[in-house]
Amino acid sequence: MSRFRHAVKGRDQHIFTLRAACVVLLLLLVTAMGGWMRAPEKLTIHNPPDLRKGSTRPWWEIPPPTVYGFTYYIFQQLNAWPKNGKVDYPARIQSLSAYLTPQCKAFLEEDSKVRGEKNELTDRVRVVYEIPGRGYSGDSVKVIDRDNWVVKLDLVADEYYLTEPVKRAMVRYPLKVVRWDGDSESNPFGMALDCYEGIPQRLAAAPEQPKPEKKGMF
């Protein structure tokens, strides 16, 4: 009888072990399904502009040339006032708000308000563009950490009153950029402009190169 009792007891223990294993597997399956459902549906991969040499990097890393290109594009759009700065400047801030941090948006809105009250924007036309020969270089982007950068833009700022040119200045703008993984539909870049890191600096004009003299034929 003891032999049969041991056999039945062994069978019951085996069945209990199998049931416990099934419960553990079920818990692991539920956990895996929960993680799969919470996984992001889209991942933004930032590739450097020049892919001739290939690129291997973590998916979350944003190359400095990409940061520079984003900063230049957004800042240029902020300063594109085609008709009337009093209307165009606030409209640009609003239309680009997805690419601005809340602090930067508030700063720009206050700047627009103050300049408007001083009558500095009425009928002003403005455009900025890169100084020829001073585009992206190795020191254009300072990497603070994985999520923060300081970008140096050397730009020409042209302003007109109606159709009359009133100002041309070459300025270095130090701008802060932060990672901004919010609404990928409104901001596919995954970055936001955080306004100025310091005071913009006026640059001296580069001296013109003397033109070579033309020699006659003998």
In short:
The protein is of the alpha+beta class and about 220 residues long.
Descriptive overview:
The chain is α+β, with helices and mostly antiparallel strands and 218 residues long. It contains 4 helices and 6 strands, in the order ααααββββββ. It has helices at residues 2-38, 64-78, 85-95, 102-117; strands at residues 124-130, 141-145, 148-161, 164-179, 191-196, 201-202. Strands 1, 2, 3, 4, 5 and 6 form a 6-stranded antiparallel sheet that branches. Strand 2 (141-145) and strand 3 form a beta hairpin. Helix 3 (85-95) runs antiparallel to helix 4. The termini are far apart. Mean pLDDT is 83; it is low at 206-218.
List keywords for this structure.
single chain, 218 residues, alpha+beta, 6-stranded antiparallel beta sheet
Topology:
Blueprint: H1 2-38, H2 64-78, H3 85-95, H4 102-117, E1 124-130, E2 141-145, E3 148-161, E4 164-179, E5 191-196, E6 201-202
